Amino acid sequence: MVADPSPSTETVAGETASLQPDSLDADGPASADTPETSPVVELPLPAHDLFFRSSELDQQPYPLIAVVPAYPPHARANEIEGWVRLLLLIDEGGQLRRLEVLEASPPGVFEDAALTAFAVAPFSPGRRAGAAVKSRMIIKVEFKSQDLQSARRE
Fold first, then answer.
1. How far, in Å, CA of 1 to CA of 27, rounded?
2. CA separation for the pair 14, 47 (Å, rounded)
3. Helices (runs of H) and strands (runs of E) counted in the chain
4. Cα dist from 57 to 24, 36, 63, whole Å
């Protein structure tokens, strides 16, 4: 028996989806260490487009090249660490259809670097029942002091 490659849950096009950041996907509850002030992003869904959640895929999408965001000069000079959580909508051809920041810490420091790095990356599409499908993934991009130290050595 072949699994049905259509999403298990459908959302009417034109509605907005409420996504709460999660370390793996938008399906699960927000983690206990997420501050109560963490943003909930309201996203308009593209008309007639349904994207599979990571949990609904047999094979996750992945970048075909190494994605290494540049450490922002201001953050480097002040030795600031942080992270950015991104939402990526990837079509069945591996093209990035949408890229958004869901959450960042500290806000306003690393978002542009993360968006710039992922905006140009080609992806292998997610697969379900052997077929390439539209998928969504949430990733956390971390900016750590070890990145600063390795950059200083170069």
1. 26
2. 6
3. 3, 9
4. 13, 30, 16
Which residues have CB under 8 Å from 85's CB, separation 6+? 21, 101, 102, 103, 104, 138, 139, 140, 141
Looking up tokens 């399906």 gives 27
Q: How far apart are CA 148 and CA 103, in angstroms?
A: 22
Q: How far apart are CA 55 and CA 60, in angstroms?
A: 9
3 state DSSP class of 34? coil
Q: How far apart are CA 120 and CA 8, in angstroms?
A: 30
> What local confidence, expressed as pLDDT, does residue 23 receive?
38
- Do you find a cis peptide bond into 44, omega within 30 degrees of 0? no
DSSP for residue 109: T
Segment 96-125 shows an average pLDDT of 96
Please, what are the domains in the chain? 51-153 (3.30.2420.10)
User: Which residue reads 């542009």 in tokens?
Assistant: 112
Q: Flag whether the pTM goes above 0.70.
A: no
Q: 138 Cβ partners below 8 Å, 6+ apart?
A: 19, 21, 22, 24, 25, 26, 54, 85, 86, 87, 88, 102
In the structure encoding, which two tokens stand for residue 105, read together? Answer: 């810490």
